[in-house]
Amino acid sequence: MKPVIQLEAIRKVYQSGEVDVHAVQGVTLDIQPGEFVAIMGSSGSGKSTLMNMIGCLDRPTSGHYRLDGIDVSTLDRDALADIRNEKIGFVFQGFNLLSRTTALENVEMPMLYHHGRLSAREHQERATRSLELVGLAARADHHPNQLSGGQQQRVAIARALVNQPSLLLADEPTGNLDSQTSIEIMGVFQKLNDQGITIIMVTHELDIARYTKRMVILRDGKVITDQPVLDRLYADDELLELRQAQQAVKLA
Q: What is the DSSP letter of 44?
């Protein structure tokens, strides 16, 4: 099976005055369709720089990056924008929802920049299906201020899925959420991954990384660990235990 992502000797060097900063140093990495990968590392490890290059938001200084077999390392700005819109869905720590539009309208936004010509009805149908995937179709007509933090992140995930991307990138997606809501959001990601969606997530929290299937740890711009998650957590089990504990406290 052809990898969704192929990184070959990727390097990124920044100029800081007269000093070269080697943010990423020769990373080679393959990610197969249907994987759920956590990228971890301390501040300055290069994980955000690597994620930006995987998301076609930045270019490598050297090396090759193939996304779905396309070498994106040499594409111009317009071609990179097309790749981002058609093949990659982004979920960020901040939900970045438009406050004066409904959940459905927020999800529809990426389709406005899609090359394929879709009717207004098709926009609505695809946005509704995306909200159904994250369990929020019943809140389609609600505005962000009528939604909880977890619900807003679900809308953001649905928005990332609406153009049916090859890859979903999540940058600290639980960073603004409490523990229970974080587990719920990781449950959403696990269900999406079970349906075959490839997910890469940057996180600094080991407990959150344990909901994924594979953990890649960076240090000083290099991969120091790349291994399966052997002690994997499952959100449904964690939520059940949490609710049972909460019920026990209420009865005590």
A: T
In this prediction, residue 1 carries a pLDDT of 79
Token pair 């998650």: residue: 229
pLDDT score at 251: 75
Closest CA relative to residue 140, chosen from 102, 110, 109: 102
Whole-angstrom Cα Rg for the chain: 19
Q: Nearest CA to 177 among 194, 189, 165?
A: 189
CA dihedral 217, 221, 223, 228 (to 10 degrees): 30
DSSP helix, strand, coil percent of the chain (3-state; round to 5): 40, 25, 35
CA dihedral 97, 100, 102, 104 (to 10 degrees): -60
Q: Is 102 in contact with 141 (CB distance < 8 Å)?
A: yes
Q: Domain 35-46+77-251, what fold? A: Rossmann fold (3.40.50)
Residue pair 4/68 in contact by the 8 Å Cβ criterion = yes
Q: How far apart are CA 153 and CA 95, in angstroms?
A: 6
| Residue 96 pLDDT exceeds 70 | yes
What does 100-143 look like in DSSP terms, one character per residue? Answer: TS-HHHHHHGGGGG-SS---HHHHHHHHHHHHHHTT-GGGTT--
**Token pair listed for 187:** 């449950």
pTM of the model: 0.91
Would you list the domain boundaries of the chain? 35-46+77-251
